[in-house]
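hey m, so remember when u said the tokens were messed up on ur end? i reran from scratch. heres the input so u can diff it against urs
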Amino acid sequence: MGSCLAHINVISLSIIILKLKTRVMLKKRKVKMLPTSDKSGTLWLTPNGALLHTHVSGEFKDKCKPQHLYITSDEDVKEGDWSIYNWLDDEGKDNWKVGQIVNVNHVLMYLCNDFTSRSGYMPLSTGIKKIIATTDISIKFLAKSMVEKMNRSGYYRFDFPQPSEGFIRVFVEEYNKGNIIEDVLVEYDHKLVTIEDFEDQIPVTRSQEQIFLKVDKNNNITIKKIKDTFTRADIIHAFTSGHSMGKQGTGHGPALEEYKERENL
């Protein structure tokens, strides 16, 4: 035993967090309402085209068409992600589908298995929109467990984050006025961590940027209306705000492009 231990090289590793900056950032995202066969939800289109947000029963389930909301992004997709895609029908009309990104012979493909004429595997394209939140609880996302070594696969299935009840009510109200909400701002947590690693007693300083979808204790995301106009005061505030994570040591607020992204200018 002693001879085996003598050949193990032990490298000491310690990490010191030098600085942690956190702020909330807003990202533009899309909203899409799609029909579904799931009749357990609370969004229903009536025969006269009105949208209801309620539980229905009896004859209403046969007369009304169930719907789901999907909040999507143009982020790159990876295996296991769920996405929506406009798989045009035989007449070239819109035909949005919900599908999953799968690995086929080491190639990522989009799979929709609703057993219609427009289903099956399809190569990835720019038209695929990654789902980040939805009212559809039938789809799950995969995430690595914190206790991966105690789990055979290392992955668990989780419910997608959902739009809040408040947003759903606003969406329904606007829809019934003829204003279909398609573009929104979604809150993300933006963290910039400056750390110092010590490997073999040699200090190395690194910065790590981390951006996470902000989700509350009820698994709801925060959605805000896109601002249509900006006043001069808005712009001055952006460049004097102390909440920005602009360049260190410059004494200035965010760069113009960062502000446009964060404030939808």
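this time it looks ok to me. DSSP finds five helices and 16 strands in the chain. if urs says something different then somethings off w ur setup not the seq
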